[in-house]
Design a protein that fits this description.
Layout lengths: L22 H10 L4 E7 L5 E7 H4 L5 E4 L24 E6 L5 E2 L7 E9 L10 H14 L2 E14 L27 H5 L2 H14 L3 E6 L5 E6 L4 H21 L3 E3 L15 E7 L16 H21 L5 H4 L12 E3 L6 E3 L9 E3 L8 H17 L23 H10 L1 H7 L1 H18 L5 H7 L4
Helix pairs in contact: 3-9, 5-6, 6-9, 7-9, 7-10, 9-11, 10-12
Length: 465
């Protein structure tokens, strides 16, 4: 991560998007790109795009549009959560406020279409506490108050699979250009080339949207790929992950396959993570605060590590948000089981890559790619913030395999939700109303999961117990 303030060449911090601030700018951009329709997107609790589409001419007027608050009460399976004392579960409207720095084309659309991410406000102009973008903004403001700016770089791991219209059947890798189902050889260029047509479209779609790819690699699983993004402002990178997930799905569908971000989509293959590289720079000077004046790890560096070790167990339900997420977090599966840290040690939950002092950073390896990027980044930064403010100290670095150490993270979703409920300090940073809704929504999803009888149960219990 560079030792500088995080801005791109256009000064907007959003991966090459044009600087658009006024209605005149919007109208000119829409005309230049011959846009006919604009998709107004709001990331919900799961990171799913909710919203509405409208003619480009209407969007150019920048008049208020509205969605019901209930979009934040809808779980991943489509049901709505209600809980005692909730006064906001109504069909009352929220005002959509476009973040014009996110205005981009949707290059896969049949007719010229644009997309733009929106914030949401109550009718009195107050931010909606349930919005994931609001949660991330809360944390970023805490950093700004201290004169700090967080810098992040997520990595997106995902699988390509054959179409799976019947969810009772396991997922299978798609057939590549050789007529085979790819390779499980990490970093294999042949593995990347196997799906070259999909990857070509990914590059083309990314370029059309001004999204910057650092690298694409073959990961450990068959038909598993990873996209690394260039470091930058947390909100900008969360927006890019949000855009990339849609981009990858659309590129895959164009070639008759799926792109999935499930944490553990196939039983005998590794899971998919969203590792988050993090550092903190001084707003005024751009100096990396994880390095002291002698280019050694600073007290803030150790404080950030201590905060992650102390508070990440309570934040785990935001980085591993589904029952499936915890199938990835098991011993000897290329995923962490604890929050030990080490220098260039990929068996730990917290890895410190070898880098020059100006690029010193901490890689959080706990988050799955199924996590909402806004919430995962917010939660990780909040844990680090608490560590820096409270001058927490990390345990000694691990030099061998951390898989030999004990579990330090929740083993399942319900345990993780309980830990968040007990951590009042973290709840306050993320927003108590948000964390209350989040915990109730996840309990509701878990209850729905428990009503499903799995193939394992039928295989081993049907005739044996």
């Amino acid at each position: 991560m560079a030792d500088r303030k995080v801005k791109d060449s256009n000064g907007d911090g959003h991966g090459g998007a044009p600087v658009i601030k006024t209605a005149a700018d919007v109208a000119r951009w829409l005309k230049e790109h011959r846009i006919e329709e604009v998709e107004c997107a709001v990331p919900d609790i799961a990171g799913v795009a909710r919203g509405k589409a409208m003619p480009a001419q209407k969007f150019a007027e920048l008049k208020p549009a509205y969605l019901p608050v209930s979009i934040f009460f809808q779980g991943i399976a489509g049901g709505y959560v209600e809980f005692e004392g909730d006064s906001d579960y109504t069909e009352g409207d929220l005002a959509l406020v476009p973040d014009l720095s996110t205005l981009r084309v949707a290059p896969w659309a049949k007719s010229p279409t644009a997309q733009v991410i929106h914030d949401v406000q109550w009718q009195n102009g107050r931010e909606v506490e349930y919005s994931p973008r609001t949660v991330l903004k809360r944390v970023m403001r805490l950093y700004e108050h201290e004169g700090w700016q967080a810098v992040v770089a997520p990595e997106i791991e995902f699988y390509l699979t054959k179409p799976n219209p019947d969810s009772d059947y396991p997922l299978e890798p798609p057939i590549g250009r050789t007529g085979r189902a790819g390779t499980s050889q990490s970093y294999s260029l042949t593995g990347v080339d196997e799906y070259t047509e999909v990857i070509d479209d990914i590059y083309d779609f990314a370029e059309a949207q001004g999204l910057k790819i650092d690298t694409i690699i073959q990961e450990a699983g068959i038909s598993q790929l990873e996209i690394n993004l260039q470091h930058g402002d947390p909100m900008s990178l969360a927006d890019q992950v949000f855009f990339f997930k849609r981009t990858l799905r659309e590129a895959a569908l164009r070639h008759g396959c799926y792109a999935t971000f499930m944490a553990k989509p196939m039983a005998n293959e590794p899971g998919s993570a969203m590792h988050i590289h993090q550092s903190v720079v001084d707003i005024e000077t751009g100096r990396n605060l994880f390095s002291d004046k002698n280019d050694k790890p600073s007290e803030l560096f150790y404080g950030f590590l201590g905060g992650l070790q102390t508070h990440l167990p309570a934040a785990a339900c935001l980085l591993a948000p589904y029952v499936n997420s915890y199938r990835r977090l098991v011993r000897d599966s290329a995923a962490p089981i604890n929050l030990e840290w080490g220098i260039d040690n990929r068996t730990t939950g917290l890895r410190v890559p070898v880098s020059p002092p100006e690029a010193r950073r901490i890689e959080n390896r706990l988050a799955g790619c199924d996590a909402n990027p806004y919430l995962a980044i917010a939660a990780s930064l909040a844990c680090g913030y608490l560590g820096m403010k409270n001058e927490l100290k990390p345990r000694a670095a691990v030099k061998g395999s951390a898989y030999a150490h004990e579990y330090q993270i929740p083993r399942g979703l319900m345990d993780a939700l309980d830990l968040l409920g007990e951590n009042k300090e973290l709840q306050k940073l993320l927003g108590t109303r948000f964390t209350t809704l989040y915990r109730e929504m996840k309990r509701s999803e878990y209850a729905a999961f428990m009503r499903v009888i799995s193939p394992w149960e039928r295989e081993h219990l049907l005739l044996s117990v």
